[in-house]
Amino acid sequence: MSELAEQAALGSGADFWTTKQVGPVPAIVLTDGPHGVRKQVAASDQLGIAENVPATCFPPAAGLGQSWDPGLVERIGTALGRESQALGVHVLLGPGINIKRDPRCGRNFEYYSEDPFVSGVLGAAWVRGVQGEGVGACVKHFAANNQEYDRMRVSADVDPRTLREIYLRAFQRVVAEADPWSLMCSYNRVNGVLASQNEWLLTKVLRDEWGFQGVVVSDWGAVADRPAAVAAGLDLEMPGGGAATDDDVVVAVGNGSLDPARVARAADRVTALATRTTAAHREGAEFDADAHHLLAREAAARSIVLLQNKGDLLPLDSSKHLAVIGEFAQQPRYQGGGSSHVTPTRLDVPMEEIGARAEVTFAPGFSTDGSGDAAALREDAVQAAATAHTAVVFLGLAARQESEGADRADIEIPPEQLELLTAVVAAQPRTVVVLIHGSVLRVAPITIAPAILDAALLGQGGGAALADVLFGAVNPSGKLTETVPVRLQDVPAYGNFPGEHGHVRYGEGLQVGYRWYDARELPVTFPFGHGLSYTTFEYSDLVVDPSLQARVTITNTGTRTGREVAQFYVSVPGSSVERAPRQLVAFGSATLAPGESATVETTIDRADLAYWDVRVDCWLVESGEYVVSVGSSSRDLRGQVAVEVTGDEFRLPVTLESSLAEALSDPATATALGGLLSATFGAELTAEAAGTDLAVLLGALPVGRLVAFSGGQLTRAHLEQLLTAAREG
Ligand code: BGC
């Protein structure tokens, strides 16, 4: 093989999960990810859907994100790294940190949040954990992959500021904070160009601006034109099997359409990853399945959100008879469908776990596949509820309703489940709902139940975790990472999702998630960041010093030990650009005994105050007052302080296209231009006149257009000269 042919061969997989061994460069194994290791039992099949080796199924991101606990996510990363070592995996394909732009996206269960800060912080923690064990992370899917519909072709049409501030920001944070060894480009186009062939994305932004050093891997089958992808900055096309695209690379170099240096560069990066991960591989490594199961259970409990708890119905009294209703209590739904589907090492069943702690009658209540007599199922359940002390009703979506590859048409809880709940609540006012789902549902109809636990998807330990929370062994502390809207028509991308004819327009711009509901002052069923506890907390003494260190005291004012996640939001009331009414910039937590107080301290990263300025293509921090609020949710704010921030030195150069107002407000040009104006037009147009009606009117005039109004006194060359002289000084 020629050197070029070897380099090309390194850049595509040998099969579904393995890279090629080329000369001294070893082959490595990449596998899914993100909430468990999906290692196939036998040699790879061509579609990657064969049976998997059992591995711990931790809570998928939809659940785990609700923990708001980077330490926990990092511990799970460590466990995943150990399982990868034991199963011979060199790169684990995760974390998924795409933004949940719309609740209908079929793959939201694999992502953390509608907010880039939470997604970035938790994603970085996952990477640190996995890579700490010598296994590469592969952050995905880069970028703007926010729907499943037409995912392999659709162009996400996003304005540059929104792209930077919302859709790229979590990736930027993970690259900066955790140095991932690889990153997966997405299937879709970004502003018309396939992500796999997008030089702006893969090279200019990712490498030149952010300094990413790792390997860019394609999503499986994302490459349409390998030479174009290599030229753009793609290093490894997956999967593989034939040499067809390797030959394309060799031919493209031969005919001069591809720079050989780019092929060599990609090969070097793949070589570095293969060398690094095989050197870190621990032959004969094992993992402790029992300890990992306990970690999965702990994480599941921390991921549960107490949405409402009227009359302190929860926690339950284990001496009382319960009716447990709903198929999901017996046939748990604990992960989403598609490439992330893990074969668990074991599975806790909620019904068994609840049954082990209290006397229980079970009734299925409904079927998830339309089988059975709905009225009879309902009647049995109502009967069980009426005769019990409390009813616990498991509702949610079936596996086939939430999977990679398809979006949902609505956000409804199935109508037969709502009918069942209405009947149960009528017969048994002491009713608790446990809601199982991978992405947001319209929850308003189930608020007829006094208590609701949002169980999202909890992984293999979810059954025991639910029992722990229901009976109070664990006090819930999860918080929503996605807003629960009142209705689908209110969601930010409504009307712009999932697009048509190959394009999806990100028409809501920056106002994604809670930013949107807050900007429009829309009511929501449960806000971003919401989550109750069996105890209560008071906030006091919020302080934010000029170095952006923030501190708040939290006191447990209730009767049980509990953990509170304090969220810090920033508003920029005097901003010169559009801003969200408030934006999450930090969070921290404290676990407190009854009566205990503690200070939650955190640093707000100055970079998180910046906006992306499209005029100069860079981040800018404005000078002025920033209002920092602290809250128990984005709509339950408990304190606020203002802090003065000195912004970045920034001045747009005054040109003939600058408006008069801009030119007159720039000290470098104001005097010279003011003098010229008074000499040419009279005193009323000088800088001193700014604020008068005439000045406002003329202020919008580009400087160069003065020529047309000068009666022949001015030329563009004259103005140009004046500006240059003024700028130079
Ligand atoms: C998914 C990726 C996954 C890959 C390998 C693709 O369909 O989008 O997230 O890692 O398959 O299974």
TrEMBL record:
Q: Which PROSITE patterns match?
A: GLYCOSYL_HYDROL_F3 (PS00775)
Output the InterPro entries linked to this UniProt entry: Cellulose_deg_GH3, Fn3-like, GH, Glyco_hydro_3_AS, Glyco_hydro_3_C, Glyco_hydro_3_C_sf, Glyco_hydro_3_N, Glyco_hydro_3_N_sf
Check the record and name the Pfam families matching this protein. Answer: Fn3-like (PF14310), Glyco_hydro_3 (PF00933), Glyco_hydro_3_C (PF01915)
Q: Which residues form the Fibronectin type III-like domain?
A: 564-634
- GO MF terms held by the record: beta-glucosidase activity
Plastid recorded as keyword: no
The domain of life is Bacteria
Q: Which UniProt keywords apply?
A: Carbohydrate metabolism, Glycosidase, Hydrolase
Gene Ontology annotations of biological process type: carbohydrate metabolic process
**Family under the similarity heading:** Belongs to the glycosyl hydrolase 3 family.
Q: What function is annotated for this protein?
A: Catalyzes the hydrolysis of a non-reducing terminal alpha-L-arabinopyranosidic linkage in ginsenoside Rb2 (alpha-L-arabinopyranosyl-(1->6)-alpha-D-glucopyranosyl) to release alpha-D-glucopyranosyl (Rd). It is not able to hydrolyze alpha-L-arabinofuranosyl-(1->6)-alpha-D-glucopyranosyl (Rc).
The name this protein carries in UniProt is: Exo-alpha-(1->6)-L-arabinopyranosidase
Organism listed in the record: Kribbella qitaiheensis
The organism's taxonomy opens as: Bacteria, Bacillati, Actinomycetota, Actinomycetes, Propionibacteriales
